[in-house]
Write a structure and sequence with these properties.
Elements (H helix, E strand, L loop, with lengths): L10 H14 L3 H17 L3 E4 L7 E4 L5 H9 L8 H8 L3 H13 L1 H27 L5
Antiparallel strand pairs: 1-2
């Protein structure tokens, strides 16, 4: 569902936005929506920043640490008594406040982080399958 909103931008901001849209081919409304969404998440989580890895998908990361999905992955890999901030901090060499910041972001943005973890797992599985196919050629006579 979309809610129309009238936004008045200063001329220099609108011109810069128009140039960005021309260069990227993205829609103006998409760029504005994503920018506002990201800004709101940053306001709610001041220890988070956004990075854009080579793949081009912007991802949440700790201001002074790794991407949030990797902390979430470390959290998921530890069950029972080992699923604690102190334990994951020790394993990852991150500070407890960094673990808490990543977990708080993840809690508020489950679809984003869980989806990213799923896509990363799928890419890892595809890469491993490709490696196995290639290794199978080594035994040919």
């Amino acid at each position: 569902m979309v809610a129309p909103t009238n936004v008045r931008l200063p001329v220099h901001v609108d011109e810069a936005l128009a140039e960005y849209v021309r260069n990227t081919g993205e829609r103006k409304s998409t760029v504005i929506s994503e920018a506002v969404s990201e800004w709101l998440r940053l306001r709610n989580h001041p220890q988070i920043r956004f990075v854009e890895p080579v793949a081009g998908e912007r991802r949440a990361a700790l201001v002074d640490g790794p991407q949030v999905w990797s902390v979430a992955e470390a959290w998921l890999q530890n069950a029972g008594p080992h699923r604690s901030v102190a334990w994951v901090a020790e394993l990852t060499a991150l500070r407890p406040d960094q673990i808490e910041a990543a977990l708080n972001y993840w809690a508020d943005n489950r679809d984003e982080i869980d989806g990213l973890i799923s896509r990363i797992h799928a890419a890892q599985e595809a890469g491993y399958a490709a490696w196995q196919r290639r290794r199978s050629l080594d035994s040919l006579a």
